[in-house]
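Workshop exercise sheet. Pairs work together: one partner reads the sequence aloud, the other fills in the structure field after running the prediction. Swap roles for the next sheet.
Pair: D.N. / O.F.
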Amino acid sequence: MAGNGPPPKANAVRRNAVDLSHLEVDEDVPDKLRKLFKRDGYSVLTQRWWDTWMASEQAESFRSTDLMRLQMLAPLVEAYFRRPGHNALAEIRQNESLLGATVTDRMRLRMKKTEKKGAKPDTLPENVADFELYRSLGGA
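Structure field:
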């Protein structure tokens, strides 16, 4: 196929490590920025949109500027819910994409899921043996 190039080497090592320092929270964001300004003036749909963003994992790494972007976007989301249009939706989509709204956006931004301290994983990693399963199958 054209454009694919040669296959990667079997022992290839990636030497350019991904810098994730931008995801580290290094400033205290005021609580007032995490609340929707003049919330009672917005419809239930816009309030639900805001609450969804604030409950998302990426919101944990938001800084003041990111939250101000969402505050500025709220009136546009409200206008879209009142009278849907493709121009407003395109602007909303573009702004939300920059904040990591979809899986593809988070992959492009190289966001990683943060593990909460003390939380146990739902599944075992591939390189870890499940001894209970091993014993039930007739192992030692």
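Discussion prompt: The CA atoms of residues 31 and 64 lie 10 Å apart. What would you look at next?
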